[in-house]
Every structure is written in C-alpha cells, then in structure tokens.
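hiii, so i know i said id send this last week but things got crazy w the move. better late than never?? heres the sequnce for the chain we talked about at the cafe, plus the structure i predicted for it. fair warning i was half asleep when i ran it
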Amino acid sequence: MKADYHIHTQLCGHARGTVDELVASAIEKGFKQVGIADHMPMLYAEDAHLAMTPEQLPGYVEEVLEARERYGGRIKVLLGIEADYHGPTQAERVAMLERFPFDYVIGSVHVLGDWIFDSPLDVDRYDELDLDEFYMEYLGEVRAMVQSGVYDIVGHPDLAKKFDKRPTVDLSPAYRGLLEAMKERGTCYEVNTAGLRWPVKEIYPESAFVRIAAELGVPVTLGSDAHCPEDVGRDFDMALELLEGAGYTEHAVFHGRKMTLVPL
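okay and structure toks below
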C-alpha cells in the first residue's frame, strides 16, 4: 500500500501542478494511493501566496472528488486537507471542515502569536528568540491541537527546526508527552520528507521522535509535502528506512476519516 498523503496543488499559491498532473506523477511512480491535501484557508492571514481562499475551497473539493472518479481504476485518490491550528479562529475552521467529506485532516501549526514562523520571509526573527522557549511553545501548541480532537494526522511534528535553528535542551520528554496525548486521542503523525529540501536537511520528525512514537505504538503516515509533481513520493526510501529502523512494520491509511493499518 504505497501512499503519499501530503500533496499540494497550485491552488495554494506557492505550488505548481494541477490535481491531474499530481495524480499522474503518483501513478507513474507506482503509488496505490495518493492524498491531495492542500492548504485550507488560513483564516488568520489573508495571503494568496499561502493558501486557497474560503471561496475556492468548494471547487477544490469538487476537483479532487472528480479525480477520484476518473482515476478509480488506476489509483485511489483521497480527499485530504491541511488545516492549521489557531485558537482565535478555530471555531470557524471547525465549521468549515464539517461541510466537506474529507478522508483525513492533517493538522499543522504554522503560526505562533502573529508570526508565521516557517515563512522564509521572516526568518530573521529567530535571531531575537530564546530558542528553547520557542520550541517548547511550539510543541505545546501542537499538543493543544491534538487534544482538540479535530485532526487525524499531525503534520511535520517538529516543523520548528525548518531553518536549522536548534534548541539546547533535550526535547525527548516533550516529545513523549505529545505522543502520549496522540495515543490517547487516536491521532497519528506523518513522516514528512520536505525537511530534506529546507536548510535543516532532515526529515520531519527527527529520529528521536520516531523512536518514542514506535515504542508507544503511535500510528504513522507518509507524506512528501510535494509542491510540484516531481516531488510526489520524493525521498520515501529514506522515510521507510527511518520507520523500519525504529521498528515500524505498518503505516496508517484513511478513508472517510477512518484509519486502518497496513504493512509498510
């Protein structure tokens, strides 16, 4: 069950490729499932270069569902979405999610306060931070996201490391607390290969996180976070090596917000 569950379309404003082009790439690479999971409207920021608008969301859903019908004999196309967690706008986000028949919802934390911390346009702000406090704040926000019960998959769980700005403290206790919350909620996380394409040059999440997750039996999905057709499934050999090295023999797949475990 070769599956890539984290793929973006040109609709988000910072990607390249139509749904058809992305699905075609997945078919060419031998995938059995492909999950289109573009950026849901952010609600806390109006920027056409970061996510689709609320007006575009119904069309996105329709386009992916139509692709599911067209490619049904060749690959299973899943309707996913990457939805931010942001307390002040959360009620509106939940109401929006409930309107559509998503197969899964990836939850991501991209913003702390008024700072979209993974934006390359504002990376200098890291120089003003206590990085230890920043990481703990980030992981605390991810834990709050999990405990909300809204999301199926935790996206790029240690995204805070994107620009290779590292803390001095051992994050393992915080990882364990987060993963225990995920286990309790029945939430899984993704091994996301996009970190290899950013300054950190490392898969999200780091191996310490994956080892603790395997120990606790927290399920996992795989995602390339592709923003162009050629990146679909990129570096999955490294992702599988990481998972198998930690002791995983299965990964999670979804349909209609229901999770099933299948062999890696």
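btw Residues 37 and 43 are 17 Å apart (CA to CA). thought thatd interest u
miss u guys!!
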